[in-house]
Amino acid sequence: MKLKSLTPNLMVKDVNETIEFYTSILNFEVLQTVPEEGELDWGFVRKDDVLIMFQKDSSIKSEYPELKAQQQGGALTLYIKTEDLDHLFQNIKDEVQIVKEMHETFYGAHEFAIQDPNGFILTFSDTLT
């Protein structure tokens, strides 16, 4: 068996608001939404090699009844390797909630972390292999 990719499908309260954050601040592009316009149940975005799906909490709980007791947001972090970390930080620092300022970790990476509108933590790094 060979695994080819991993694309998280994150449970969110408002897909439209989430896509607006990822496209306007982090420069992701929208690949697909359901429905195509209006109040969205699901959205799929990409920035370079990073793919993320967002699904409205009521929609994903209908699809996966096992998630009915789960709250949306905040239960995980997404670790995103990037180039030119300082440039990214300078471009978004005034538009996002910074949860960890730029720092060097004990494992030798340079990182900073932000929180998206759903409470998910996005950690950006440029040095970890």
UniProtKB/TrEMBL annotation:
InterPro entries per record: Glyas_Bleomycin-R_OHBP_Dase, Glyas_Fos-R_dOase_dom, VOC_core
SUPFAM superfamilies found in the cross-reference section: Glyoxalase/Bleomycin resistance protein/Dihydroxybiphenyl dioxygenase (SSF54593)
One Pfam family per UniProt: Glyoxalase
Stretches assigned to the VOC domain: 2-127
Stretches of the chain forming a coiled coil according to its record: none
Name of the molecule in the record: Glyoxalase
Natural source organism: Fodinibius halophilus
